[in-house]
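Hey, resending since the last one bounced:
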Amino acid sequence: HYHRSKKGGGEWEFFDLPEQWDIHYKDLTFHLKPFSFKHTGLFPEQATNWDWFGDKIRNAGRPVKVLNLFAYTGGATLAAAAAGASVTHVDASKEREIRRGNHYDAIIMDPPSYGRGPKGEIWKIEDCIHDLIKLCTKILSDDPLFFLINSYTTGLAPAVLTYMLSTELKKFDGRVDSQEIGLPVSSNGLVLPCGASGRWEAK
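The structure tokens again:
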């Protein structure tokens, strides 16, 4: 059980939960422990995306460089590296990272809905995401493989993600498919909605 603090963050009240444990997904192993901000840092609804881009990396027939923005604890980084990609892991947008002149065959971004930068500047995904996508297209290689955006914000529905990706990546030969993502519920066969993913992929 998690007790939220009025000052931010909170703490867990444990029953029989171990302090640390391992979770395995296919060839990946994650070492987990609870954080003070209500989750473990692993988001299992992203497994469908790990499978999707993992297949693309393994079948590319060439070295693949991936930029993972807002990479956080790195589930996507591990999945891409396990598939054979060279991954640059950045735990924020950090435009200076984007402006260094490197080029990438694929970009993964999992931006927060809201946050503050190192100088107190406010990040709101609805206001900032389109410009960030546009900026990221400048560092894609001439033959990009995929571009993935995750959203946990109600205002960024799959149709909105599709529009932004289709607009900003129109110079590349590809297609866009955006869907809700969720977790299957074994007791009733339904899916618990968790957010949305926008996927651009080369044809």
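Helices lie at 47-58, 75-82, 95-98, 125-137, 158-168.

Sorry for the duplicate.
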